[in-house]
Structures are given as structure tokens and as C-alpha cells.
Amino acid sequence: MADGLLTTLTGLIKRGTVAWSKVSATQRKALRPLLDGGILIRERSGGGERLVVKNPAVVQRFADNCYPNGLVEATEAAQKPGRLSTTQGVHYFRDAKRGGQQADLLLFRGRPGTTIQCNDIDLPVGQLTSTAGVAAVVLNASQNLSMCGTLAIVENQTAFLHAETLGVNFDVALYGQGRLSRRVIDWLGSRAMEAVDVVHCPDYDPVGLDEYIRLHAQCGDRVRLHRPHNLEELLQRYGKPSLYLENQRLLASLEDAPPAAQSVA
Fold first, then answer.
1. In CA terms, which of 49, 166, 217, 249 is 20 to 30 Å from 191?
2. Distances (CA, A) of 239 to 174, 231, 264
3. DSSP label at 85?
4. How do 135-139 and 17-19 pair as beta strands?
């Protein structure tokens, strides 16, 4: 589906006007330079207001800057099934985030002697950890990645780099980097990983705990939540109350979360 600004600009260029009520707050912010410059004006229309073009050439240049390959092609691209590539996101929308990454870069740390299997070849994660600090693997559609034992997913970078001191029993640790992508979640729930136990070591805020729910939904009871024995003390000392205030809606949704199988250190 085409985004709102794309639809609005198409209407302005084709018809010279759109209903003001159809212009979202986000679009109004994007169009503010045109409004401030009198390129677009608001005027009464029936029982409401409409946005009217006063300088079509400037509006066209603005549209070309937002959608460098043209409004028509951008609309067609937005309506295509499936996700665009990062390159296509830049090509049509001047925004790489409008396209989907075609791969994920995974960073691992491993206990001495541990390996993971990449396309049936053993990758010496333990050895690479001792010599280089991490092992890196690109996860994409053609990569067959598997392992045995217990995988710890550590959200925080500092904690990941000191994963061996967390008091968590694991063979390999994966740097979570905040939110895991859909590709990584699918991989964790795949047949190649179905014998692997997962210990989730999040930041203990609404976003981190919501990530546990995502993992549990995909992997079921193979996932357990690591909870230090002094968690309440740590939260009082280092926690940020603002994170809970800013994520109250997400926090409320956690009330329906499945019970956590806890890993207590």
C-alpha cells in the first residue's frame, strides 16, 4: 500500500487539492515548508478545509526530492507484494529503511571448543572468541546455520562482551542488539534449531520483556528467561523509570504474557 505522503502528493499534483482531514499529522510536518512558504494553502471547503496548490512547479520539485524515481513508479513499488530490497528503498523512496535488509549480521561468543555449523562446515566459535573476541556469520536465505546445546541471547552489548560472567549456563551467546529481526526469530524457530535451548538475557524493561514474548511465541518452552537472583536490587540501582513511563501501553500488554521459565543465577 502506498504511504500517506505519496498519496497526498499524487492528489495535489493531479487535482491541485486534497481534503485537509486526509492529511495526517506526520504528513503535515513533512509538508510544513510548503505551507510556511505559501506553496500550499488551507482554505474552507464545505463543512471542512482543503489543501490547495498555489505553485505546482515547487510541489513537483518537492515530490521529486522525496520520490526520486517518480510518483507513479513509487506507487507501483509500494503496491508490489513482498518486501523491497534496501537498494529499491533508496531507488523509489530515497530511504533504505523502506526496503528490507536481505541479510542479518550475527555476532557470537562461544565457550572454549564450541562450534556452530554453517552450511555443514564447523565454525570454531570458541577459538574465534578467544582470539578475536567474537565470531560473525551472515544469516540470509541461502545460509544453513545450526548448532547444538544452549544459546544465550544477550541484548546489551557490554553484557554480551562479558557473557561468561553473567552466571548463565550456555554454549554460545548471540548479541541480540535490541530487537531481533523477523529473519532471526524465524531461524531460532526453525527445524535446524529445534533441539537448541534458548536463554534470553534482556534489558529488564518493557521492550526487553516484550522480546521474550516474541521468542516464546516462536520457540515455545525451549526459551527461558534469565533472572538474576538480585534483579530487584539491580533495577533499583540501575533501572530507568522513564523507560516504563514511555512504554506504558507495551507494559500493559505484558499482563497477558506466558509464564516465564526462569533461569536464576
1. 166
2. 23, 10, 19
3. B
4. unpaired
- Residues 101/86, Cβ–Cβ less than 8 Å: yes
pLDDT single digits (tens) 14-54: 899 999 998 988 889 889 989 999 999 999 998 899 999 99
Helices (H) and strands (E) in the chain, counts: 12, 13
Q: Residue 156: which of 174, 130, 172, 178 has the closest Cα?
A: 178
pLDDT recorded at residue 70: 74
> Which pLDDT value is given to residue 64?
83
Angle, to 10 degrees, between the axis of helix 56-66 and the axis of helix 4-15? 150
Question: Which cell goes with 178?
Answer: 535490541
Residues with Cβ within 8 Å of 192's Cβ and at least 6 positions away in sequence, in order, are 144, 145, 146
Residue 147, helix vs strand vs coil: coil
Please state, in angstroms and rounded to a whole number, the distance separating the CA atoms of residues 39 and 56: 8
C-beta of residue 176 within 8 angstroms of C-beta of residue 211: yes
Pairing of strands 223-227, 262-264: parallel
DSSP 180: P
**How deeply is 90 buried, as exposed, middle or buried, from its count of CB atoms within 10 A (0-12, 13-18, 19+)?**
middle
Segment 222-235 shows an average pLDDT of 70
